[in-house]
Amino acid sequence: MPAFTTDPGLLALTAILAYLLGAVPFGIVITRAMGLGDLRQIGSGNIGATNVLRTGNKAAALATLILDAAKGGVAVLIARWLMGEDAAQLAGLCAFLGHLFPVWLRFKGGKGVATFLGILIALAWPVGLAACATWLVGALITRTSSIAALVAAATSAVWIILFGHAQILLLSFVLTVLVYLRHAENLQRLKAGTEPKIGQKSAEKPEA
């Protein structure tokens, strides 16, 4: 964890702006713009790229994936450029929280996997790319997005240590814990053998 040397007022402003950027629900924006309906009433009701894919529109899912990752990465890069590493890590955390708990959606957001990967790429690109590769291998083997996400998050600490970026280890641990908490229902379905495969319609009903 880097030393906090940036002015506290600037850090507070960074936190607010990063949260608001992270809170932009790109999945909902894209599906509505493309006439695909209200994403919260489709599949699992989640706002992430995996659920967008359940609309059958791969382009919309890819756009959501890229933009959800980018909002985390952009928050980190801008904060680092303007202030420093302490602001960059704070921006990453707050953008992630914005995605998970967006004020615009009554704090019911996504599960944060794409945003997590975007943050890792911006903080330490070798770590981020290794985590992305882990997710991809996991998805190809299991055809289950949640398993790929959980494995990628859990192994991020391994890549951080191997590539020598210990300064982001604590942040990665916090984000990983949040990813697992947001996947609590997925873990239950995995245990029950009812977790849908990638592209398959979810059996669960979206929250009201």
- Structural class, judged by helices and strands? mainly alpha
DSSP, total strands: 0
Shape: globular
Q: What is the distance, rounded to the nearest whole angstrom, between the alpha carbons of the first and last residues?
A: 39 Å
Radius of gyration: 17 Å
**Oligomer kind:** single chain
Fraction of residues in β-strands = under 5%
Poorly predicted spans: 202-208
Number of domains: 1
> What composes the largest sheet?
none
Order of helices and strands: HHHHHHHHHH
Q: Quick check: average pLDDT?
A: 90
Number of helices: 10
Into which percent range does the helicity of residues fall? 55-70%
Name the features.
mainly alpha, 208 residues, single chain
Architecture overview:
The protein starts with 7 loop residues before the first helix and ends in a 16-residue tail after the last helix. The C terminus is likely disordered. The protein has 208 residues and is an all-alpha fold. It is globular. Helices cover 67% and strands 0% of the residues. The chain has ten helices and no strands. The chain has one domain.
